[in-house]
Design brief:
single chain, two-stranded antiparallel ribbon, 17-stranded antiparallel sheet, 3 helices, mainly beta
């Protein structure tokens, strides 16, 4: 739904992608951007620059910029060549701007959508990613990064409190700083009839300075897919918890696409813990079109009151919820389209539209 262009400049490659999917989303009555004074604010796009041999020793440099309707992300990654049997190292610098809707967003239309709560996050991180050699089924990645998080309002000015006057950082100042050690393990097994996947993330905040956050956060995702004749059944279970220091934006947000459909992003709840289950059955309608029926449910396990400032209670979020729905999946060599219609426990319908796997 846009234009793609690749340019070769010496050994470097530049990929440009401009996407106009916002026009289609607008036709489906999705929320419009907050600031449309500039035509560029209505464009979704990306710019990627890759150099395969930066200093003549096969060093790789990737620079990418992704822009959405509400957010943007800049990533710089530098990789040095190492033998395949050794761990691969990558130096990363990343800066992102995004609305914090999952925790501070305001549920509207019977929790089917989430409006802006006036809190956005400016996040800067830099550090090292280490990927272990991949075995037949397992892969492991370890990272050590410094993170600086600064909440801003919709005018991109620094804030220390939300619209109700509660702190939006753990430190109480206009920013949080932390050094995070992260370990991620992934397992995958597949055959012609089924597949199994499991991933576990563990993050530890390291107290380099007294005011920096100290916490332990883990999250897991387990999924199983099985062919049932021409149909395909996919189930997944997601859970996590955090202990120690915590800012409200670190809470687990429940609700929305990829969580509990039928609700807006984070409209079910936000807590120190969460558990979300998804089940979806897809069946072919023709060579390129599939139908789908699904059921999602999720809960904060009663931990919403443990989030600083208790934003979920102030916004009237139920803490648990379930959604039922149906949809269509269109697949082609150029990309995939997904259209879902879900109804939540308040009998409010929500429409989701997505475009993925676009060919470059």
């Amino acid at each position: 739904m846009g234009a793609q262009k690749s340019i070769h400049a010496g050994k470097a490659k530049i990929d440009v992608n401009v996407d106009f999917t916002h026009k289609l989303c607008a036709s489906l009555m999705l929320p419009p951007p907050r600031n449309t004074s500039s035509p560029l604010s209505l464009v979704i796009g990306s710019l990627c620059i890759k150099h395969p041999n930066l200093f003549g020793g096969s060093e790789k440099l990737d620079v990418s910029w992704d822009k959405g309707l509400y957010d943007s992300n800049v990533l710089v990654a530098y990789r040095r060549p190492r033998p395949e049997w050794l761990s691969q190292q990558c130096f990363v610098i990343q800066h992102s701007l995004s609305p914090e809707v999952g925790v501070h967003g305001l549920p509207i239309d019977n929790f089917s959508r989430s409006g802006s709560g006036g809190v956005n996050l400016s996040r800067l991180s830099l550090g090292l990613d280490i990927s272990e050699p991949i075995s037949s089924k397992w892969s492991n990645t370890t990272s050590l990064k410094f993170e600086h998080v600064r909440p801003v309002n919709d005018d991109w000015r620094s804030i220390t409190r939300d619209l109700d006057g509660f702190p939006v950082t753990c430190s109480g100042s206009n920013h949080d700083s932390m050094v995070v050690l992260k370990q991620e393990s992934r397992y995958a097994k597949a055959n012609d009839r089924s597949f199994s996947r499991f991933s576990m993330q563990i993050e530890q905040g390291i107290p380099v300075l007294s005011k920096w956050l100290i916490f332990n956060r883990f999250k897991f995702v387990a999924s199983k897919g099985v062919k049932l004749g021409p149909a395909f059944l996919l189930t997944s279970l997601t859970g996590g918890s955090i202990v120690g220091d915590m800012a409200p934006y670190q809470a687990f947000a429940i609700g929305g696409l990829g969580s509990v459909r039928g609700y807006g992003e984070g409209a079910v709840g936000s807590g120190r813990s969460c558990l979300v289950a998804n089940t979806e059955l897809t069946f072919p309608l023709n060579n390129t079109l599939e139908g789908a029926v699904f059921m999602d449910c999720g809960t904060d396990l009663g931990s919403g009151r443990l989030v600083p400032g208790n934003p979920a209670l102030r916004q009237g979020k139920p803490g648990s919820g379930a959604g039922l729905g149906y949809g269509l999946r269109y697949r082609s060599p150029f990309g995939s389209l997904q259209l879902d219609c879900a109804i939540n426990a308040f009998q409010q319908k929500t429409l989701y539209f997505g475009i993925t796997n676009l060919a470059s």
